[in-house]
Amino acid sequence: MNIHEHQAKEVLKSFGAPVANGVVITSLEQAEAAVGAMKGPVWVVKSQIHAGGRGKGKFRELPGDAKGGVRVSFSAEEALANVKEMLGKTLVTNQTGPAGKQVNRLYVEDGADIDRELYLSILVDRETGKTSFVASTEGGMDIEAVAEETPELIHTIAINASSGCTDADAARIADAYKLAGKAREQGTALFKTLYDAFTTKDMSLLEINPLIVTKANDVQVLDAKVSFDNNALFRHPDVAAYRDETEEDAKEIEASKHDLAYIALDGDIGCMVNGAGLAMATMDIIKLYGAEPANFLDVGGGASKEKVTAAFKIITSDPNVKGILVNIFGGIMRCDVIAEGVVAAVKEVGLKVPLVVRLEGTKVAEGKKIINDSGLNVIAADDLDDAAQKIVKAVKG
Fold first, then answer.
1. How many CB atoms lie within 10 A of CB 98?
2. What is the DSSP string of 298-356?
3. What is the mean pLDDT of the segment spanning 89-116?
4. 141 annotated among ligand-binding-site residues
5. Residue 46 annotated as part of some ligand binding site
6. Any binding-site annotation on 147?
């Protein structure tokens, strides 16, 4: 689960991390009082959306040369004008796609006297199986560009779970940033604090870009992006309360209600598959034959008829879907249950696009009989390769 920057800073501040004072604005009625409560002399107005690249983004409703989604203001009047111009507008960044995201809340915080900008993230490193810090002196930039152009400036420090972030680990991170004096003292304490926050709150990603050193040689969290492990949210009701459904795809929200693993994509072939690996292979082979998947959808190993019906409804609710491929290899999941769910869903919502069904495994004969006896206009497939070719051909005509 992703949260907004101001929420991430609230979490980090509760652990003792140094963050600037700020206020959240969700309506123009709040704006004047909120901006007036800030001392200045610099106010930073930040769009709060679940996407990066806000500073370089463009508002669809504003002229092309208008300032982006993060604006530095040098008076309360300028800050208020920026709030009025940004709130409710659609911000398009390199991560939102062309559709953009509507800015429903802003965060106004005190400006900082920046001397250096650093990059820091904590994540689970799949290569080592450990939680690792990723540190670079090139903060404020896209870390992907740094990795491609100057990989020697990126340092990875793996942490042993049994000992946590030790003084020696924190010193290595400080060395990577070339911190000295007061900044080194504050930094080594902060790195241990951030690791504590990461593990205590079951985060899957903590990214601070930039982490700054001020001209007074103080260390401060200037931006923060945090994602949490959905499977651990039951342990953190305070974190679950941060969820902002306006930032999520409506189909993904509906899928979560039925415990379906669903991710919306940009293609036009809807996929219903059991098993994450098979779902990935299904999407790959659709791309191999020249089309694009509209979603990732794993119904799981023990889905009920009702769950399959819900999954089919979610797929057909996507207006971009021009065809549907059901690819089931029955082990724990029975083919007849899938077939019953598909038939029930089609009878309820109708079928306006081509449907290819490939069934194999447990109760496959019963599943095929249910499909064949349903009277539905279904294209049967013998294997995955055959199914992919048939759905791509049906969609492309």
1. 7
2. E--TT--HHHHHHHHHHHHT-TT--EEEEEEEESSS-HHHHHHHHHHHHHHH---S-EE
3. 93
4. no
5. yes
6. no
Active site annotation includes 207? yes
Q: Is the pLDDT of residue 125 over 80?
A: yes
Residue 55 in marked binding region: yes
Task: Give 237's contacts (C-beta < 8 A, 6+ positions apart).
Answer: none
Grouping H, G, I as helix, E, B as strand and the rest as coil, residue 219 is: strand
5 is annotated as an active-site residue:
no
Return the minimum-mean-pLDDT range out of 67-81, 206-220, 349-363: 349-363
Exactly one of 107, 119, 177, 242 is catalytic; which is it? Answer: 119
pLDDT at 44 over 80: yes
Give the pLDDT band (50/70/90) at residue 301. Answer: low
106-138 burial, b at 16+ Cβ within 10 Å, e below that, comes to: bbbbebbeeebbbbbbbbebeeeeebbbbbbbb
Q: Please count the other Cβ atoms lying within 10 Å of the Cβ belonging to residue 345.
A: 23
397 is in an annotated binding site: no
* Band of residue 107 on the pLDDT scale cut at 50, 70, 90: very high
Read off the DSSP letter of residue 15.
T
| CATH numbers and ranges of domains, the chain | 21-110 (3.30.1490.20), 114-240 (3.30.470.20), 249-396 (3.40.50.261)
Hey, CA dihedral for 62, 68, 69, 70, is it positive or negative?
Answer: negative
Backbone angles phi, psi at 79, to 5 degrees: -60, -45
pLDDT > 70? residue 371: yes
| Overall average pLDDT of the 169-177 stretch | 97
231 is an annotated ligand-binding site residue:
no
Q: Which of 5, 138, 207, 340 is catalytic?
A: 207
pLDDT over 80 at 158, yes or no: yes
Report, as an integer, the average pLDDT of 58-67.
Answer: 90
DSSP assignments along 147-203, one per residue: HHH-GGGEEEEEE-TTT-S-HHHHHHHHHHHT--HHHHHHHHHHHHHHHHHHHHTTE
Question: Cα separation of 40 and 31, whole Å?
Answer: 15
pTM score: 0.81
Mean pLDDT value across the chain: 92
